[in-house]
């Protein structure tokens, strides 16, 4: 088979000797430093002179930061596939997506049997390997419904729960030589990994033909299968001086389709020379020859490892082959295995035609330019947890900035922190905790920085700290026309004003500079109460909140309350400090408002209160929400809330405290203008009930942009003067209304 068009990769194949355990680890680190893409180790668990390969893989992953790691190949008869699936997924999650899985059917059966493994015939080994692949794939597919059921002759998994899903689409390669194994590669694997020393002349061509035929019969594109090759210096393919090797390997790359060359050596100097001389020369030669043959364009673009089924799922309105090279490797299309993990937000199940995942501001610029050329809807995603559900779409492009997730303390004395827009607030809190700093940032650790820090930020420290946006002192922004600008009090101050409250309508923020607050431990209390008169309880609760010290920020959730289910009120109380006595004095009065079903309090780091969960979103919430900002929980407001809860039309109501420091900021200081409200209400509408008309009276003063699912009257989101300013800003920074998916603010004129 001619060139499959895969990007060229190089790896090392190291001996896991335990005589000097640190030596093989040092060689792995050196491989990364020399520019290799992959480090692999043979796996012979019955060999007492070797380190255990899986333990070594985890150790090397921890010692490196870029290189991928894999067994070459792992001995499946001694590594149960169900356990192996979870081990590989765990390593991939811990390493940030750097695990690969090489598998073999087994060999050296005396050693395997001596270790308690089964002794299989060649045919049984292939069958067992096929069953093992089914188990591994099924357990990795955490988005599928139901438990895993594989009832094979050699591997049985009946009723196992799925997950965890790996951090990336882990490639599965098979070491194979005989026809039946080669057909299994074409049918189920992502790569073929033979060793040159075991091949006779012509075996690569014959093996490729078998694999390609099997792949086509299974409905796959043969280019979906990467071809890898273990090479040994002095053997066929690597003769003479390393200076001559690039010429020798060129034919293997272009005529036999090898996309990954793995150097079998424990010679550190040879590793350095291969990385510095051979690999760059070979890449240059392959690129030049592809350009000469005319196979570096469409063929190479199509050879991204996507199956025929994936290619068939492409939408006609998107030019997939024109995705910028820097984005193509991480892009996710509808037919890709990763699609289920990135298509949806927390609330809404989306069906975008393409998800681009930039990791730098330049890549954001490139992604936005590409998306604009397609003429399809554009959504921008940070954490994807927003209740509004605006971070996905149907048939459009999602620009997912979760790869821009840095957290850096720029100035400890001034408490200035730079945070990437793709980070989640739980990770931000964890990163700031060692510095004794914190940022008020919502009530859940998986909320993304980008969405919250442009909309408001009603957090657990609101009454003492204010909103998140109140402490944003600067932002780096990609504008609709691709310009990258700084927005702060001196540079583009008009844009800076609008970013704080309506930022998603003006550009894509890639990072924020935020003033943190000094904070270590907090007092976190949970009270569950059963009010007999919900309206009366709400009035008393609201009055008590407004009279409490600013260090206390309570959030209340009310569920039930229908004809057959009494209302239950659960409140989180966060005291912004580590004085338990003061916290108890402030919280104790709430105990007398209604019978207490449960109470607990603890002194804990703020980072523990908003710990991240890193959940994968699949539109699991599927809810419609309504919002209201209110000055007080007066009897009229409380009565309406109690009536809506009692009618059953609202599944749940949450009340967030947003007075205190939030209301110290002038209403015209930024686009967020709700500076008299003491409370922010969020109602979850019961499925099929429709948004209740009675809520309109509650929302008369205004609504919080992030909590309103549907399009709504902009006059309730922004004060009239602020809305006029935002429309003028749109005409300056986004005159073509590129960023219209967030909320429909039209440019002036």
Automatic annotation (TrEMBL):
UniProt xrefs under InterPro entries: BBE, FAD-bd_PCMH, FAD-bd_PCMH-like_sf, FAD-bd_PCMH_sub1, FAD-bd_PCMH_sub2, FAD-linked_Oxidoreductase, Luciferase-like_dom, Luciferase-like_sf
Flavoprotein is among the record's keywords: yes
Keyword annotations: FAD, Flavoprotein, Oxidoreductase
Lineage: Bacteria, Bacillati, Actinomycetota, Actinomycetes, Micrococcales
Name recorded for this polypeptide: FAD/FMN-containing dehydrogenase
Organism: Flavimobilis marinus
Domain FAD-binding PCMH-type: 348-519
Tree of life domain: Bacteria
Protein family (similarity comment): Belongs to the oxygen-dependent FAD-linked oxidoreductase family.
Cofactor(s), by name: FAD
Molecular functions per Gene Ontology: FAD binding; oxidoreductase activity, acting on paired donors, with incorporation or reduction of molecular oxygen
């Amino acid at each position: 088979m001619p060139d499959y068009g895969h990007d060229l990769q190089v790896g090392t194949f190291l001996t896991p000797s335990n005589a000097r355990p640190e030596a093989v680890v040092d060689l792995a680190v050196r491989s990364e430093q020399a520019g290799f893409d992959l480090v692999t180790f043979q796996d012979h668990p019955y060999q007492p002179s070797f380190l255990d390969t899986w333990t070594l893989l985890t150790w090397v992953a921890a010692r490196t930061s870029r290189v991928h790691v894999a067994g070459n190949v792992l001995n499946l008869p001694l590594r149960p596939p169900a356990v192996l699936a979870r081990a590989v997924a765990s390593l991939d999650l811990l390493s940030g997506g750097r695990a690969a899985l090489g598998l073999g059917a087994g060999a050296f059966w005396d050693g395997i049997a001596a270790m308690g493994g089964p002794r299989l015939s060649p045919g049984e080994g292939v069958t067992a390997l096929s069953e093992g692949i089914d188990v591994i794939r099924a357990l990795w597919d955490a988005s599928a419904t139901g438990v895993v059921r594989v009832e094979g002759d050699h591997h049985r998994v009946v009723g196992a729960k799925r997950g965890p899903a790996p951090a990336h689409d882990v490639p599965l390669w098979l070491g194979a030589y005989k026809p039946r194994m080669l057909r299994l590669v074409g049918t189920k694997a992502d790569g073929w990994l033979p060793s040159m020393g075991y091949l006779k002349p012509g075996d690569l061509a014959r093996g490729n033909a078998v694999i390609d035929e099997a792949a086509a019969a299974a409905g796959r594109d043969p280019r979906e299968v990467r071809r890898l090759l273990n090479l040994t210096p002095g053997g066929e393919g690597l003769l003479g001086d390393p200076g001559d090797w690039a010429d020798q390997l060129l034919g293997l790359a272009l005529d036999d389709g090898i996309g990954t060359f793995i150097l079998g050596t424990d010679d550190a100097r040879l590793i350095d020379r291969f990385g510095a001389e051979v690999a760059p020369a070979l890449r240059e030669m392959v690129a030049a020859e592809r350009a000469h043959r005319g196979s570096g364009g469409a063929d190479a673009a199509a050879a991204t490892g996507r199956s025929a089924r994936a290619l068939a799922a492409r939408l006609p309105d998107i030019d997939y082959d024109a995705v910028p090279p820097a984005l193509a490797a991480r892009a996710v299309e509808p037919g890709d295995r990763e699609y289920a993990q990135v298509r949806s937000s927390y609330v809404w199940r989306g069906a975008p035609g393409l998800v681009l995942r930039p990791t730098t501001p330049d890549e954001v610029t490139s992604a936005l330019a590409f998306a604009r050329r397609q003429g399809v809807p554009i959504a921008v995603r940070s954490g994807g947890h927003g209740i509004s559900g605006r971070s996905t779409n149907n048939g459009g492009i999602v620009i997912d900035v979760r790869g821009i997730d840095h957290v850096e303390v720029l100035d400890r004395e001034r408490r200035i922190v730079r945070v990437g827009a793709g980070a989640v607030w739980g990770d931000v809190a964890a990163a700031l905790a060692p510095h004794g700093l914190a940022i008020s940032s919502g009530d859940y650790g998986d909320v993304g920085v980008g969405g919250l820090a442009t909309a408001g930020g009603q957090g657990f420290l609101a009454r003492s700290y204010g909103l998140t946006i109140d402490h944003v002192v600067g932002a780096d922004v990609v504008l609709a026309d691709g310009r990258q600008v700084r927005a702060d009090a001196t540079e583009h101050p008009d844009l800076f004003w609008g970013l704080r409250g309506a930022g998603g309508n003006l550009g894509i923020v890639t990072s924020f500079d935020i003033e943190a607050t000094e904070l270590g431990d907090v007092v976190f209390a949970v009270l569950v109460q059963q009010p007999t008169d919900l309206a009366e309880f709400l009035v008393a609760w609201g009055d008590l909140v407004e009279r409490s010290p600013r260090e206390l920020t309570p959030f209340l959730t009310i569920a039930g309350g229908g004809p057959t289910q009494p209302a239950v009120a659960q409140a989180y109380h966060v005291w912004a400090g580590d004085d338990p006595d003061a916290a108890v004095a402030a919280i104790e009065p709430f105990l007398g408002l209604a019978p207490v079903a449960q109470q607990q309090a603890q002194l804990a780091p703020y980072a523990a209160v908003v710990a991240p969960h890193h959940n994968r979103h699949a539109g699991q919430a599927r809810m419609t929400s309504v919002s209201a900002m209110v000055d007080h929980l007066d009897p009229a407001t409380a009565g309406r809330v109690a009536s809506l809860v009692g009618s059953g039309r609202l599944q749940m109501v949450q009340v967030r405290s947003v007075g205190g420091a939030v209301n110290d900021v002038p209403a015209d200081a930024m686009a967020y203008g709700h500076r008299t409200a003491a409370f922010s209400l969020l109602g979850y509408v019961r499925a099929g009930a429709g948004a209740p008309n009675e809520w309109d009276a509650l929302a008369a003063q205004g609504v919080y942009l992030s909590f309103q699912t549907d399009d709504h009257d902009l006059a309730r989101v922004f004060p009239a003067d602020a809305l006029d300013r935002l429309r003028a800003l749109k005409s300056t920074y986004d005159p073509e209304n590129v960023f219209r998916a967030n909320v429909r603010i039209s440019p002036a004129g």
